[in-house]
Amino acid sequence: MTATTVDAQASPDLAQRVRAFPWSRYVVYIGFVLVFVFFAVTQGEYFLTWTNLSNVVVQSAPITVMAIGAVLVLGIGAIDLSIGSTVALGALSAAVALEASGLWWVGALVGLAVGAAVGAVNGFFVTVVRLPSFLVTLASMGLVAGLARQLTDLQSVPVLDETFVWLFGSGSLLGIPILVWWTGAAVLAGWHVVRQRRFGAHVLAVGNNERAAQVAGIRVGRVKMAVFVASGMTAALAGILYDGRLGGARYTLGEADLMTVLAAVIVGGTALTGGKASIAGALVGSLLMSMINNGLILAGLSVSQQMIVRGAIILIAVSLSLRARKSQ
Q: Considering the domain 25-327 in this protein, what is its CATH number?
C-alpha cells in the first residue's frame, strides 16, 4: 500500500472524526480559551495581572448567580425576561429595608423575598393562567422596572452597614474575595439541583416533553412555579451582591444584564428549547462575558463602542453555539 493510498484513507477518517466531535458541548470552553489568548496578546501588560484577572471573576459573580436561575428556566423550555428589572427592585428593597431596620439580615431577607414574589407572580400567570412565559415576563419586566423607579423616586440608596458590605461585596475569606465564594456556592447549589436531585430531572423532563412529563406523574405546574421563584430569587441575590460591591442601590442596576445572562447560558450549552442544561457551561459563559467586557475596557473603547462590539461578539458566539448544536 502506497503512502498516497494511506493518506487518502486517513483524510476521510479525520474529517469524519471532526464532524462527529461534540462541538456543541465544548464550544464555550474553546471560545473562552480563544478570547483569553486574544486579550493576553493584545492587552497582555494590563490583562494578565493578578489584580485584573481577579476582577474578571469578581465582576462576573452577579451574572453567574443569575445564570443559575436562567439555566433552570430555559431547562423547562421557558424564558424569564424580567431578571434585569428584578435585580434593581431586589437591590433597592434590600437597601431600603437595611436603612430602615439597621439589620443586615433584614435587608437581605427582604430583597430575597421581593425576588421570590416577582418569580411567584410570573409563575402564576405561566402555570395557572397558562400564558406564554415570553409575554408574561416581558410584561413583568416593565412592571418591575416601574416599581423599582417608584420605590425611591429615582434616588440612589446608600448601603453603609459594614457587615452587609463585607458579606455581600468587599469582604474576603481565607484570602479569597467573598464574591468568589458566592459564585462557588451558587454553582455548587445549581449543579446539585440539576444533577443530583429528582427536581433537576423533573425540570429537564418538562423541558423535553411537557405532556410526557405529566403522564409520568410529574407535577408540571409545581416544577414551573418553583423554577420561576428560583429565577426571581437569584436575580434578587444578584442585586444584593451589587449593593455590597457598589455600596449602594440604584434603579439602573441590572438593566443591561439580561442579554449577558442569556448569552452566557446559551453559549454554555443550555438549550433554548428546554430539556438540556449545563451549570458548568453557564459558569464559563459568565466568565467569558465578563472577560470580554474587561478586555474591551482595557482596549480603551468608549461605552457606545463597547456596546456595539459586545453585542456583535455575543451574537456571533450564540449563533455559532446554536449552529454547532443543530449539527450534532
A: 1.10.3470
